[in-house]
């Protein structure tokens, strides 16, 4: 039996450090907005290479609150258009509509699953004010190209970095390319808490200040409210867990890449298309996603040998009931991707032997 991602094993591998950190918080008597959060924010900002990190309750809030802060700062207005990849996880789109902004769903590049500069440029109208690129599956989008378009048309860029902790290009990590970035620390993400957590990174002092207030009822100072904020805080226990896990992140990323390398070299089947991976640093393999025209047969074949796989994602946002107004959009590439993608097991505790079993099973798959 090969599980998709064994979270229990991942967290057990530093059980003592986690338990010690937990005990430290319990014994401190301080559970919200204290030293653990300040410490993690400082460490994570430095690890990414950003000036600020603002911890929030989850990844969706990181995106929602950043767009909201830009509205408060007068940089965005209700009805403005935000370009977003059509094949993203629903949260990227929810963050836009939650702010009464208009998502413009754009087809990704076929090879990378990510937004490309040319498609973005083709979707720009006089109402476009922002781009929300998603570094899907852990692969950094073409940020040099995207930032050039943003500069040319004076657009804000919010990176959805929920799947791409540490992915980089030319030494610059996810979370430092755009004007701001939203991270998720959902337990199954590459850097995962033991519950919900998220953060925004930015090097914009003014944005950071507004976000620090917004997450805390809109208040900078107790009982004084500048904005109509929310309660979206990253609590001390989760911040302490994240500080422990951050210390192991680079090793975990390297292990994910080793598994990906085995897959890239070992899987040889005409019916299975492997992900593009040109530069090591660019991909952190949150997911290892292959394409197969006979996906359901491949998934069944793997399951028969005890190998768990998942589909990220089975239904694109514009085909969701929640967005029934978008159902008539023509996004053929996005729809094809959703019909063909399959995520193979990958994780920091997976062994070479397990990877070999997956490889053999992929190679013995016979398409009709
Ligand atoms: C997980 C995820 C989110 C949302 O993060 P949560 O912490 O679950 O709210 C947003 N965008 C993408 C691409 C994600 O994968």
From TrEMBL:
InterPro entries: DegT/StrS_aminotransferase, PyrdxlP-dep_Trfase, PyrdxlP-dep_Trfase_major, PyrdxlP-dep_Trfase_small. Keywords: Aminotransferase, Pyridoxal phosphate, Transferase. Coiled coil: none annotated. It comes from the Bacteria. Pfam families: DegT_DnrJ_EryC1. GO terms for molecular function: transaminase activity. SUPFAM superfamilies: PLP-dependent transferases. PANTHER family: 3-OXO-GLUCOSE-6-PHOSPHATE:GLUTAMATE AMINOTRANSFERASE (PTHR30244:SF36), TRANSAMINASE (PTHR30244). Belongs to the DegT/DnrJ/EryC1 family. This is DegT/DnrJ/EryC1/StrS family aminotransferase.
